[in-house]
Design brief:
The protein is an alpha+beta fold. It has 3 helices and 6 strands; from the N terminus they run ααββαββββ. Helix 1 packs antiparallel against helix 2 and helix 2 crosses helix 3.
Length: about 150
């Protein structure tokens, strides 16, 4: 009887570990897809697409140089429009620190960007994203950023 209980518990732990690994893999894949879609949107200078593939409509964002917390699509779109106007391309470089549990997750990323003005220096922005699984898939619901790489 005791051994049957131990075997049942071991099997439960193994199944739980497999479920965690599957959820983690799904989150990793979704985040990577979002990063590639953002790169394409920036290169196309399409701020609306950038917003749609990355952010929740209720995004809350703050960071270096932000005078007030930015809340929602209408507040963030003009900021994104300014970025895509002045940026030729960005490579999103993920950091290994990322985790999800259920419908919430986090990740760190560095934007490595080339300005549209070829005489200007490249720049980096590092960000912490808080993700939530929505009907449309994983979207960033909160972001904090600072200038410079990881």
């Amino acid at each position: 009887m005791k051994f049957r209980f131990i075997a049942t518990m071991a099997a439960t732990v193994a199944v739980s570990g497999s479920a965690f690994a599957a959820a983690s893999t799904e989150f990793d894949k979704a985040v990577t897809e979002r990063y590639r879609a953002v790169e394409a949107a920036i290169e196309a200078r399409d701020g609306n697409r950038w917003f749609d593939v990355l952010y929740s409509k209720d995004i809350v964002l703050t960071g270096e140089g932000t005078k007030e917390v930015i809340r929602g699509r209408d507040a963030l779109l003009p900021v994104i429009a300014g970025i895509v106007k002045g940026t030729a391309s960005c490579k999103l470089i993920p950091d290994g620190a990322r985790r999800s549990s259920g419908d919430i997750g986090y990740s760190f990323v560095t934007y490595d960007c080339k300005p549209a003005d070829a005489t200007a220096a490249n720049y980096q922005v590092r960000a912490l994203f808080v993700w939530q699984r929505e009907k449309a898939g994983w979207r960033v619901v909160a972001e904090s950023y600072t200038m410079g790489g990881m």
